[in-house]
Amino acid sequence: QVQLVQSGTEVQKPGASVKLSCKASGYTLSSYALHWVRQAPGQGLEWMGWINAGDGHTKYSQNFQGRVTITRDTSANTAYMDLTSLRSEDTAVYYCARDVGAAAFDIWGQGTVVTVSS
Amino acid sequence: ETVLTQSPGVLSLSPGERATLSCRASQSVRSNYVAWYQHKPGQAPRLLIYAASSRATGVPGRFSGSGSGTDFTLVISSLEPEDFAVYYCQQYVTSPITFGGGTKVEIK
To answer: How far is the C-alpha of B75 from the C-alpha of B63, rounded, in Å?
Structure first.
């Protein structure tokens, strides 16, 4: 069964960093691009960035430039998203999603809740 | 950046009724690479439609997408109880990838 399994709930203090994981199951991570999308409480979906899991090339939304880093470990079939200098506005559910090109984002992880609070 | 504007913000309908959701782009979307997702609380978004009009695997035939250029539409021909959710359009051809603000389809 093709799926993306994300790491568990995080609670962090303002100014801290968080690193989320997204493990691909049922397919080879490096065969597709992978994106990170978040949803803050009461808000819509916001794209954060993506990685070409084959060659590691990344591109980020300017809204997160300098604070977000997406990486992958092909041996672990897992992608990661690192977000630094956390603030309360980063409280959200974070999703990873597989990009199959013309057919958009076909598989999504279950989401990771990140709460930023002092 | 391609801004996507969805309307209406909320659609109040009864089961069995037809739902028509609109998504307008601030500039033409190349290759009509617009997707529609269904999102329910506590769940991951679910891909319904890609490339404006192609149904994703396993999506019921009551969901259909159309449009080109800057105007796109998602139609649910006859609402089932499980269809009440928030729907987002997305353009995925131009960076940054953008989503519309969503349309909530609620039970009247």
So the answer is: 6
CB contact under 8 A, A45 and B88: yes
DSSP SS3 for A54: coil
pLDDT band at B58 (very low <50, low <70, confident <90, very high): very high
Other beta carbons within 10 angstroms of residue A63's beta carbon come to 12
A105:B101 CB<8 A: no
**Amino acid present at A85:** S
Instruction: Show the tokens assigned to A14.
Output: 């303002």
Task: Yes or no: say if B74 and B49 are a contact pair by the CB < 8 Å rule.
Answer: yes
> pLDDT at residue A65 above 80?
no
Nearest to A96 by CA among A7, A35, A39, A49: A35
Are the C-beta atoms of A79 and A99 separated by less than 8 Å?
no
Would you say residue B25 has pLDDT above 90? yes
Q: What is the mean pLDDT of chain A?
A: 97
Paired tokens of A85: 């200098």
Q: At residue B60, does pLDDT exceed 80?
A: yes
Selected residue of A93, A105, A107, A113 to mutate for chain B interface (largest B Cβ count, 10 A): A105
For residue B57 the two structure tokens come to 């695997």
